[in-house]
Amino acid sequence: MLNFLRGSVLAKKDRYIILVVGENTGYRIYVTQQLLEQLNPSGDVSFFVYTNVKEDTIELYGFPNIDELDFFEKLITISGVGPRIALGVLSVAPLADIKKAIIHGDPALLQKVTSIGKKTAERIIVELKEKITVSAQEETATMSITENIQLMEALQSLGYKEGEVRKALRQIPPETKELSDKIKEALKILSGGKPA
Fold this sequence. Notes:
The chain is of the alpha+beta class. It has helices at about 35-40, 65-75, 85-90, 95-105, 120-130, 135-140, 145-155, 160-170, 180-190, and strands spanning about 5-10, 15-20, 25-30, 45-55, 60-65.
């Protein structure tokens, strides 16, 4: 079973990349939206890999670090959460924010995933709440769950796509604290300006 791959990105598609390993071997690897946005064709990358074996196919899911892989593996043990849904969860926000939402018992962030309704979100919280932790640094370094959702919704209501919004939010300077200031900074970034 594959656990780790290093190679260069041959092509990027909507939900996966083709990773060339060695000279003649290419693997289709499903990755989160955030990671897909960051990867450059021909760039060298490495992934921790989960291999999903079905009756008629083998799928590879790639993660930039062991923490995301571990969290993904915890998610897919939950009834009703397969690899595609688990990848959707990891695409909705930074891992620390997702963990905080689960620890604080807040299903709103999880429900941003297309395939997850309220019951599945609550099941994820119940089953994972005691199995995950957030470091003190993660607790203070990332936006609050409510802020994250409010920012996403405010910017999407202005017509920006979810992927664009997520990318802009990652570029907001950490010293920007007020929600209104974060929206202004994100709008500057989205309109092609630089963060202040």
